């Protein structure tokens, strides 16, 4: 059989975060949205300040982020989401989330934000936008003896598929448009 | 003369960032807004992964942030701002800003965000919210031979004073309410 074009091999190995960052750079350059990845929080312990050169961090530790990966603004809407990859092929495990992230999404949702998880099934090269409302419900049910994962079949029902294209490759703002349309009239003026 | 209450001495030395963080914690706890400081971006060079303990950063450098200090959501509005302190007593020097920050504020403003600088005159214990539109204009004029600072008198005219109170001490959302009222009908649905 003929080999796939080289670009597909490259894309296949691209992390979801790298794909989203590329989309965000495109959306920013084309004045469509301003959405950035938040830096990883670091606990500084020892910093050297050498003369005539830049400060050097000599001891520091990674802290667990208290919020989500991404936020920003799109068409006047506050956008907030976390990116999650799974190698599973039939469901998305909820253990990928932490209580802090769920609380943060719930708080932003309450303020009228457009909040979701952007989930990539790496082995299927399939992407879904899962509205935070559904994620929060599944999370709460889990504590009451509910499932520890969201079946792919459920994601196909309540989620919004994210399409791949050329510019940008990961066209997630189209899925966001659909989420906004769903939420409109519910909690946005 | 009688000494001031101890709390005032403590507050006097509090950095603007610490004051804003305290306000944000209060606003979050009381479900009024979800606004966070973004972590400082760090360029990692060397990270050790010792067995049975946490990863340790052994060499890293501070990167200049490409956006602003704070963003989040309040009443459905995207909020984006930078905090700046000055020891000056008659004007605010524009050199406190970088081109990246101005570009970021301009891009967020274009998307309908509520964008501003929160300026503290440390020697006056005076705080002003300067709308991004005015900041951007002053910045652009500077490149065309304009002033390198914004006079306090101008800030009193075009800015919105931020009041101190008890809970939270720095009541900056009241100033944000006034900025929203100004912008309403201009670029928010
Ligand atoms: Mg993530
Ligand atoms: Mg600052």
Write the layout of secondary structure elements.
The structure is a homodimer of 189-residue chains.
Chain A: H1 6-12, H2 16-29, E1 34-37, E2 42-48, E3 56-62, E4 70-74, E5 77-86, E6 91-93, H3 99-110, E7 114-121, E8 126-131, H4 132-143, E9 149-151, H5 152-158, E10 160-161, H6 172-183
Helix pairs in contact in A: 3-4
The structure holds magnesium ion (MG) (2 copies).
Key terms:
disordered N terminus; DNA damage (chains A, B); homodimer; two-stranded antiparallel ribbon; alpha+beta; 189 residues; 6 helices; magnesium (chains A, B); 6-stranded mixed beta sheet; DNA recombination (chains A, B); endonuclease (chains A, B); Trna Endonuclease, Chain: A, domain 1; binds magnesium ion
Shape-level CATH architecture of chain A: 3-Layer(aba) Sandwich
Q: How many independent structural domains of chain A?
A: 1
Mean of pLDDT of chain A: 91
Structural class of chain A: alpha+beta
Report the order of strands and helices of chain A. Answer: HHEEEEEEHEEHEHEH
Largest interface by residue count? A-B, 41 and 40 residues
Query: Which value, in Å, is the CA radius of gyration of chain A?
Result: 19 Å
Given as residue ranges, the uncertain stretches of chain A (5+ residues, pLDDT < 50) are 1-10
Overall 3D form of chain A: globular
The total strand number of chain A stands at 10
**Quaternary structure classification:** homodimer
Keywords (chains A, B): Cytoplasm, DNA damage, DNA recombination, DNA repair, Endonuclease, Hydrolase, Magnesium, Metal-binding, Nuclease
Family (chains A, B): Belongs to the RecU family.
EC number (chains A, B): 3.1.21.10
Site (Transition state stabilizer) (chains A, B): 84
């Amino acid at each position: 059989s003929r080999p796939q074009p080289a670009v597909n091999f490259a894309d296949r190995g691209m992390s979801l975060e790298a794909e989203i960052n590329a989309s965000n750079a495109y959306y920013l350059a084309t004045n469509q949205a301003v959405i950035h990845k938040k830096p990883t929080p670091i606990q500084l312990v020892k910093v050297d300040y050498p003369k005539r050169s830049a400060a050097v961090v000599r001891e520091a530790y990674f802290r667990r982020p208290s919020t989500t990966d991404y936020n920003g603004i799109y068409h006047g809407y506050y956008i907030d989401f976390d990116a999650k990859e799974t190698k599973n092929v039939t469901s998305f495990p909820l253990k990928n989330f932490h209580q802090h992230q769920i609380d943060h999404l719930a708080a932003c949702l309450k303020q009228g934000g457009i909040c979701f998880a952007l989930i990539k099934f790496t082995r299927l090269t399939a992407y879904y936008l899962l509205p935070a409302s559904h994620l929060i419900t599944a999370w709460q049910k889990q504590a009451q003896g509910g499932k520890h994962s969201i079946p792919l079949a459920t994601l196909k029902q309540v989620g919004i598929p994210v399409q791949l294209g050329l510019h940008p490759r990961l066209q997630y703002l189209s899925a966001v448009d659909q989420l906004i349309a769903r939420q409109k009239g519910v909690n946005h003026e």
